[in-house]
């Protein structure tokens, strides 16, 4: 087969023609150590430079730890030949084998996760994390009052106010591994804020407070990241169209409707249908000054989650709980990363569960804890 036909049949061209992620390709087309070195150089690593080789090895070690501690179940293990192979050129050659073998499949698993860790980072977050956190959280915290009677945002009583200042690399990798895009630019919640109110009406009041006090610039919200599974907007607009003040709505507290399945503004296939919250991603312009008066300006995304107390408690149990959420997420990543090595029993696949390569689930992590795989899934070699 000539070179053009060989490339046409491979995964690289399909990423352009079919929008297929390289993560979903079962093999590469690298036929010699020289091709492997050229492939790596185009990727961004010079295998002849010690610094690049040390970075590659650090990424490989992270990937091995993630596979063994997050994806594999008790009794499952990688073949030592693949697990202990430090020469990335050999892994690239093994994954390019014309015939699928246990060695080529496990090499593919390692490279899939290595690729994701290589893209798992935010330059601005890693370099300026503390300053970014101070500027974003500072806008909120100057409005938070801690009193003997509780926590308040202005005069709105809060059940919980939480700020998450860092997303772990493993949590970011887990998120990226079920996205078709599979690049860290798609992670918008390196920083996050959660506000829990007494009732859904106060959740709306919080939104209004954020706007009235210029805490959040709503013009800088990313619309495709807005999720509403808490309040039925059509019901609210019809019910309250002649109301002039929130205080007139107290009688409606027990009647406030959540969106039904058809109206739920969410496409996160890992959240249970009982999960209720308002979530949106905003960008804030960060202003920094480095040495010699150099000024740096950029926009940085962060996520806000607002929900009422009943929804908060419900979201911590049953299908909507974080543990169940992460379990569904890990199961989907297992199926995608392990590929033909992962065989799931039919009765364990929930109706409507996500396939191995969702186009854009726009996942919304609720915290950074990652649970290992729990369902019994057999590995076949």
Automatic annotation (TrEMBL):
<dbReference type="InterPro" id="IPR030824">
    <property type="entry name" value="CHP04562"/>
</dbReference>
<protein>
    <submittedName>
        <fullName>TIGR04552 family protein</fullName>
    </submittedName>
</protein>
<feature type="compositionally biased region" description="Basic and acidic residues">
    <location>
        <begin position="357"/>
        <end position="371"/>
    </location>
</feature>
<feature type="region of interest" description="Disordered">
    <location>
        <begin position="343"/>
        <end position="381"/>
    </location>
</feature>
<dbReference type="InterPro" id="IPR043519">
    <property type="entry name" value="NT_sf"/>
</dbReference>
């Amino acid at each position: 087969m000539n070179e053009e036909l060989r490339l046409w049949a491979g995964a690289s061209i399909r990423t352009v023609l079919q929008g297929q992620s390289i993560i979903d390709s079962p093999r590469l087309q690298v036929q010699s150590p020289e091709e492997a070195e050229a492939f790596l150089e185009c990727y961004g690593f010079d295998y002849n430079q010690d610094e690049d080789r040390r970075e590659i090895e650090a990424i490989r070690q992270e990937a091995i730890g993630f596979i063994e501690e997050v994806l594999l179940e008790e009794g499952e293990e990688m073949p030592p030949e693949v697990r202990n192979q430090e020469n990335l050129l050999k892994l690239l050659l093994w994954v390019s084998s014309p015939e699928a073998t246990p060695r080529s499949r496990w090499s593919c698993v390692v490279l899939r996760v290595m690729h994701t860790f290589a893209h798992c980072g935010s330059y601005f977050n890693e370099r300026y994390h503390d300053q970014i956190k101070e500027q974003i959280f500072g806008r909120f915290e100057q409005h938070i009052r801690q009193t003997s009677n509780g926590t308040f945002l202005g005069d709105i009583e809060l059940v919980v106010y939480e700020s998450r200042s860092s997303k772990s690399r493993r949590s970011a990798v887990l998120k990226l591994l079920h996205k078709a895009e599979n690049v860290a630019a798609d992670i918008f919640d390196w920083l996050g804020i959660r506000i829990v109110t007494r009732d859904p009406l106060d959740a709306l009041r919080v939104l209004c407070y954020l706007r009235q006090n210029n805490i959040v610039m709503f013009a800088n919200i990313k619309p495709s990241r807005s999720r509403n599974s808490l309040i039925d907007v059509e019901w609210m607009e019809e019910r309250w169209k002649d109301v002039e003040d929130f205080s007139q709505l107290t009688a409606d507290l027990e009647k406030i409707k959540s969106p039904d399945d058809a109206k739920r503004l969410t496409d996160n296939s890992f959240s249970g249908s009982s999960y209720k919250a308002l979530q949106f991603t905003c960008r804030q312009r960060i202003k920094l000054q480095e040495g010699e008066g150099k000024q740096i300006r950029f926009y940085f995304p962060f996520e806000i989650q607002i929900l009422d107390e009943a929804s908060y408690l419900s979201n911590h149990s049953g299908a909507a709980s974080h543990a169940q959420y992460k379990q569904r997420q890990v199961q989907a990543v297992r199926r995608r990363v392990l590929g033909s090595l992962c065989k799931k029993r039919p009765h364990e696949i929930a109706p409507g569960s996500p396939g191995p390569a969702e186009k854009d689930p726009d996942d919304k992590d609720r915290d950074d804890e990652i649970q290992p795989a729990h369902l019994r899934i057999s590995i076949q070699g």
